[in-house]
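Exam revision sheet. Question 4 asks you to relate a sequence to its structure. Input first:
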Amino acid sequence: MRTVLRRPDFRLLFGGLLASMTAESILLLALAIWVKDLTGSNGLAGGIIFAVIAPMMLAPLVGWFVDRYPRRPFFVTANVVTALLLVPLFTVRDAGDVWLVYLVAALYGLSSITLGAALSGLLRQLVPLELLAEANGVLQTVRQGLRLIGPLAGAALYAALGGWALAGIGMVGFLTAAAVVSAVPSPTLTPPAVRLRWPAELGAGLRHLTGEPALRRALLGYGLGSLVMGFSESLIFAYVDQGLDRDAAFVGVLVMVQGVGGLVGGLCSPGLVRRLGEIGTLAAGVAFFSPAALALAYPDLRLGFVAVLLAGVSLPLTMVGLHTLIQRRTPPGLVGRVAAATQALVSGPQALSIGTGALLVGVLDYRLLFLLVGVATLAAGVYLWRGRHLSAPAGGRGPTPPPRPTLPAPRRPVDADIDAPVATGPRRPPRR
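Answer key, structure tokens:
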């Protein structure tokens, strides 16, 4: 990771992202706590999460919009707009204003998709292909580290200062990110200007995902795992309550151990990509969740710590493998649409899984459900592992060339052939 951090342009980008990721990590839980305080309803507080996820339906439109503009200026502008989206929170006074918190949460979710798609395109332009795994690994390591302290810091800040001060801190984080990233030198590469009818451009990201064998395999395998991995969000409370006979607050201790695993996974992910390839790393990430789930089916605290540590390692491996694969296998002008479509296709099964797990834990034994999660994630990991040849390890290949776009190419005039390479050597006379 030190190699990519030696690059001045990436260091600037990293500094800006550190500010915005810190703001993100403190906001989400604090908004839910705010709604709980205003209404006294657990259901309305949990609805904040749904409000953030709901805009995923607009991901194809967001990706199309992102791909129409230069990466760095767009990313800077998107951070400024995200800061401004928090302004309505300053007008919240009582339970009658809860709709404003929901509105901000939904717009924040839309902004999150936009920033993610723009960041993928910006990384693709700033960082050489052989360093993309390192760049993604650095960002995932920091993100996992912030999971250790961000939500707790947000809750503490809310308790001490209130929701208005929290909104102000969030605005400072996004504006700082915009200011720092604006100093990043403009990339020399620009997305190719492909002019098609907008319905064709809108679906180009999804067509590329389904048409590229490595990406298709990655999404199918990870989607299968996501359909059950979300169960753990509800099952962990049953594990602590029924299995360990401890208070629900003990979940926070397990989350901290999981965060430590996330740091380990983030640090190890670039090395695994070099040795196993992107799909192999994704397979390892999904497969690591299997023994974690199987261990949690047996209520023992020592096993529980090992299990959540493995679950923590799993997440950054899957994210680094998937994001690096997308960035390497996608033409620069399509990265925004492909990243946004991937985020929607991944988040959809996860949201469904979380809701289904919340229902099933009320009627089935949590241990049986953990066994189901373990078997399903093992199957998903094996499916991905068998397709690892689709993305060979970086150590055994040269830089991955950009693939051909899946967009239907517009017909060029004959004059465009002047840009084609011309043989400069002497021509051999035709044989008689």
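Marking note for examiners. The chain is about 70% helix and 0% strand.
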